[in-house]
């Protein structure tokens, strides 16, 4: 079976003290020789803390955003090279909260994915439809449009992506897509990747949207669900560890 990948998205949460406690609990609680890949995506200011606390551990470091630019007059932005200096292996791009609150377009998301890849960081490309789009029967068209922009931009590097399907209506709402709903969209994404690369099977397809300790196992049992992007439940060590255990 393909190795699963579980990524925690802390969003704008945490403090030096709370992070230290959470990371300690995760390090202690991870199974020895566990098969699933595990990473946490923290606010950029805490990456140095993660780098120090996670050195020698199997938990990968992730960031939540990256600039599409290399350097220069882009106040407030953080470049891929900077993230790399602090050990980032992954970066979320196109999270729905960034699309919604920061006006990130498909083109911007694609440029960010490209900027990350260029510096050796794996972009976790987030796609997903709103409730309105789902109800209008547009789910497939929306996620395909979002992913197409990235595929077009990164060319031969498609197989180096991670893709996360996160229905916007399921994020932070406690409403999870059913395993069947999630699998159906994942199958669409897999087919789209397969049309772009012969290595589509290698691209981890994560599900995100109120994944928790109770529903993770069923979701992760679906053929095309290769892992999870976990928001709220990643802030509680016991819950996150249960999800990781379900991915072994
Ligand atoms: C997320 O923010 O990526 C997410 C999936 O959040 P939650 O698990 O809280 O729905």
Can you describe what's shown?
By secondary structure, the protein is α/β, with parallel strands linked by helices. It has a single domain, classed as TIM Barrel. It has 10 helices and 8 strands. An 8-stranded parallel barrel has the order 1-2-3-4-5-6-7-8, surrounded by 5 helices. The mean pLDDT is 97. Phosphoenolpyruvate is lined by residues 9, 11, 166, 171-172, 208-211, 229-233.
Features:
binds phosphoenolpyruvate; eight-stranded parallel beta barrel; 10 helices; 248 residues; single chain; alpha/beta; TIM Barrel
Distance from first to last alpha carbon? 10 Å
CATH C-level label: Alpha Beta
Element order, helices and strands?
EHEHEHEHHEHHEHEHEH
The CATH topology annotation reads as TIM Barrel
Biggest pleated sheet: 8 strands, parallel, barrel
Low-confidence stretches: none
Count of β-strands: 8
The helix-and-strand class reads alpha/beta
Please report the number of helical segments. 10
Helical residues, percent: 40-55%
* Mean pLDDT across residues: 97
**Which shape, going by the Cα principal axes?**
globular
> CATH homologous superfamily?
Aldolase class I
Percent of residues in β-strands: 15-25%
Radius of gyration equals 17 Å
Provide the number of structural domains.
1
CATH architecture term? Alpha-Beta Barrel
Neighbour order of strands in the largest sheet: 1-2-3-4-5-6-7-8
């Amino acid at each position: 079976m393909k190795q699963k990948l579980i990524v925690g998205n802390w969003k704008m949460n945490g403090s030096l003290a709370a992070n230290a406690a959470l990371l300690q609990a995760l390090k202690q609680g991870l199974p020895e020789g566990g098969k699933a890949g595990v990473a946490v995506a923290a606010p950029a200011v805490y990456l140095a803390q993660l780098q120090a606390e996670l050195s020698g551990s199997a938990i990968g470091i992730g960031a939540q955003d990256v600039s599409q630019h290399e350097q220069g007059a882009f106040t407030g932005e953080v470049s891929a090279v900077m993230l790399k200096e602090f050990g980032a292996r992954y970066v979320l791009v196109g999270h729905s909260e960034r699309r919604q609150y920061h006006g990130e377009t498909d083109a911007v998301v694609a440029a960010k994915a490209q900027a990350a890849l260029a510096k050796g960081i794996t972009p976790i490309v987030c796609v997903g439809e709103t409730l309105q789009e789902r109800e209008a029967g547009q789910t497939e068209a929306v996620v395909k449009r979002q992913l197409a922009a990235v595929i077009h931009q990164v060319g031969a590097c498609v197989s180096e992506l991670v893709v996360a399907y996160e229905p916007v209506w399921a994020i932070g709402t406690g409403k999870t897509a059913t395993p069947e709903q999630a699998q159906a969209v994942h199958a669409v994404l897999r087919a789209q990747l397969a049309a772009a690369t012969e290595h589509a099977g290698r691209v981890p397809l994560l599900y995100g949207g109120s994944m928790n300790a109770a529903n993770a196992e069923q979701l992760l049992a679906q053929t095309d669900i290769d892992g999870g992007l976990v928001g709220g439940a990643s802030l509680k060590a016991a819950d996150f560890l249960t999800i990781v255990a379900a991915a072994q």
